[in-house]
Design a protein that fits this description.
- Helices cover 88% and strands 0% of the residues.
- Helix 1 packs antiparallel against helix 2 and helix 3 crosses helix 4.
- The chain is mostly helical.
- It holds the Pfam family DUF2304.
- This is DUF2304 domain-containing protein.
- It comes from Lentzea jiangxiensis.
- Keywords: Membrane, Transmembrane, Transmembrane helix.
């Protein structure tokens, strides 16, 4: 087994252990962990099975196994960016909605405070008039 393949297996196994540990400590949500587990298992398989990258490159019509691995990494990163962009868009929408709700609640609170101040002032004036 070449040193590079061994390094790839060790690094992928380390990634798997880190992802599982982060999930256990609730630092990484399951929907993101699944993707990283898939990537880690894929790298372990590519490193452990000697002819797999060459076979996959021949299957897809790519001339070199290195080009196949590069393309697979690029598509994986593209998928990660797409997923995270989708999540950011969703979170931006949630933040906008929350800010709008807070603004409406503040406006309502100011109205209630103004009404309460009027009632307090009115009650104080009545008390002052009622005293001899």
């Amino acid at each position: 087994m070449s040193a590079f393949r061994l390094l790839a297996i060790v690094v992928a196994a380390l990634v798997l252990v880190v992802v599982i540990e982060m999930m256990r400590r609730r630092k990484l949500r399951e929907k993101y962990a699944g993707m990283w587990l898939f990537v880690g298992i894929g790298v372990v398989c590519l490193g452990a099975i000697p002819g797999l990258p060459t076979w996959l490159s021949n299957l897809t019509g790519i001339q070199l196994a290195a080009n196949f691995l590069f393309a697979a990494a690029a598509f994986t990163l593209l998928f990660v960016v797409l997923q995270l962009s989708s999540e950011v868009g969703h979170l931006e929408e949630e933040v906008r909605t929350t800010v709008e709700e807070i603004a409406l609640l503040r406006c309502e609170l100011e109205g209630v405070r103004a009404e309460l101040d009027k009632r307090i002032t009115s009650a104080e004036e009545r008390l002052l008039r009622a005293q001899p």
